[in-house]
Amino acid sequence: MQKLILLTVLIFCLSGCGNSPGCPTAEPAPHPSPTPVESSAPEPSPPQLKTAAEYAALDNKGSGWGLKKNKGAEPDIPDSAKALLAKYNGYYMDQTKPKALYLTFDEGYENGYTAQILDTLKKCNVPAAFFVTGPYLKTETELITRMVNEGHIVGNHTVHHPNLPKLDDAAQMAAELTELNNAFQAEYGIQMRYMRPPEGEFSERMLAVANDLGYKTIFWSFAYKDWDATHQSGADYAFQQVTPYFHDGAILLLHAVSKDNADALERIIQYAHENGYEFRSLDELE
């Protein structure tokens, strides 16, 4: 009987009962990396570009992606912007999935924190999307290889990070996306399917070019001033900036140059899990 009791206690201890939700606080056991979600959508058709005259007829007045954040609820977005996104395959949130969150990072340059971010995502088994530029693609091969191998999406943030509506020629807009995609595809055998406009600046012409090239244009329903690497306020500050604005279907924009974001990320993920949220891949956007 004594042996039976000891065996029962041992089994209970090994089972790990009683762990809290979120990322493990102790040394995590090995587990699979995040895996890409299989998309049910068919492979994109070859690009069907308009003529130069057709693009020239579309409004190219630049608009910044403006929104009014609301705690615990989706932001206020101008109806005109919503209409353009609906017309040209653009997204700022997912209107269909309660308790879904989409984690995205912009990568204009490497500031030493992306490896830490990837470690946290792997530990917590959470997918993300990283929007990269041409210089980043060229110089950060090891990090991008990790992104790909660990199941994350690598998105198109253009070759040179220009304000796209300031490029009057639609062919120049297309080249900024196509050249980066071609370089990425040559190296990794994957075609980029998501783009994010530099500076969040867009126009109808820009959205049309991206859509005709087969991209979903990804804006966001939450962001904060986190991109200034010289003005960081600590992990607690980042946590307090991000978590009050969780809402169903949120696309979260964080900048990977921020030490605050890197240090707060695990707590942010844990808080999301504790409050019933699930992080999803952009491949699940509807």
UniProtKB/TrEMBL annotation:
Gene Ontology CC: membrane
Annotated signal peptide: 1-22
Entry GO MF terms: hydrolase activity, acting on carbon-nitrogen (but not peptide) bonds
Alphabetically ordered keywords of this record: Signal
Coiled-coil annotated spans: none
Domain NodB homology: 99-280
GO terms classed as biological process: carbohydrate metabolic process
Residue span of region Disordered: 25-48
Name listed for the protein in its UniProt record: Delta-lactam-biosynthetic de-N-acetylase
